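Weekly structure sync, notes
Attendees: PL (lead), two postdocs, one rotation student
Agenda item 3: pending single-chain targets
PL asked that the sequence for the first pending target be pasted directly into the notes so everyone works from the same version. It is reproduced below exactly as submitted, 450 residues in total.
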Amino acid sequence: MTATSLSNAVNPHYLCKVMDLSELMPVRASAAIVDAFGSTLVAQGAIVTRQLQERLLTRKLRRPLERALCIDGGVDSAVLHTFATTLIDANRPLARILRASATGGRAPLALLGEFELGEAMRLLLTLSERDGTLTHALTVSLLSICLAKQLRLTEQDQIVAGLAGLLHDIGELYVDPAFLVPGRRLQPQQWAEMVSHPHTGQLLINELESFPLAVGRAVAEHHERFDGSGYPRQALGNHISAPGQAVAVAELVASLLGQERALEHAELALSLIPGEHPSDLQGAVAGALRLQQRANDDAPASGAPANESAERLGWRIASSLELGQRLLDGPAAQAQATRAPLERALGRIKRLQHAYIDTTVDGYLVLQVPASASVRRAPASVATMEIGWRLRDIARDLALRSALQESTSVFAGLIDLLDDDDAPQRAITAAAQSASPAPASSAGSRPAPA
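Predicted structure, written out during the meeting:
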């Protein structure tokens, strides 16, 4: 069952980060830290040191530790404004999106300067800065305000979106850092811990700040998708709040801005699956890309024909569909709890297959771009990269759903095939053991390209 309040047990990952920070700048007890039996562990005003770590970990407290800690110095509104100004100057794609979405009213940077942060949230943001994630958080915050403008939200809701963008990943401070290593393949239970971070962030905001509840809600929604393919709730359409929609798209775009062809890739990510994102939120990126092309600045190179990795991607898609259908026809999928996540995964793979086929026709993927009422072509080199990432996203979703239903072993081979762009033939063999026998006329799955 999902928790509805912060735990009085201390999260070890959060505490470890606090102790690391305490060796660099003073972390104080803003209130006395008292255990469940009434014993004072840390007096009000006292400096928190590493010597207290074990005691805090092994005692249940009367109230969450986060409510009793503050920091001398650290990240505040002035620091955020300085960081954001530097970020805009250094990140040309971000600056272009800000310029393209300037539709009147105060600029995102001006609204960011109005954020009022309490002691607990300042500490959490300082921990994020130490983790190297504050730049991403600020990028998402600025983009969230831009996209809230695109949705014609009020200035107050723009601030809600900006705050939620800034705080969207604070729940990751409570996740095992080993699970956050880029490129690491997570096991189902590990992924289940990762998926909890939007809800953890919502709890932290609702209990530690006096922000509108809409801020915490938007944080909880930042991995949801308009077509219901997101997580953790698979919220659909207008069941996602307008600030939440803005933050979800901003988070996706921000993750791509450090790459080559950043705006091109971002537009592709928003357009690849029709209905995945609100069409009116594509406008800011599409407009920024037009500005870039008119200026002939960082203009995208011409698309290259599909290469060997694209060939292998096609094999993975086709083999995943074949394997998934065999599982669907087999005895394990007779239970609805097993059948539902499998049908969901196959539906998403088929949509990616359509995009892949379009890409391989002439080396481009044709995109419908509502904001410009035109079509645009994305090079195969960009399209195949994005499609590969989407396959991994389907693998994570299937792993999570199957873990919740205790059917992980049934889907292990399919998950392996979707998640690994170098998946060996053993993925097919392992999953086929849970599927019905192939028809006598079937040639089986195609061998992987060398």
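Discussion points:
- The CA atoms of residues 101 and 305 lie 33 Å apart.
- Confidence is low (pLDDT under 50) at residues 299-308, 424-432, 434-447.
Action: rotation student to compare against the earlier draft before next sync.
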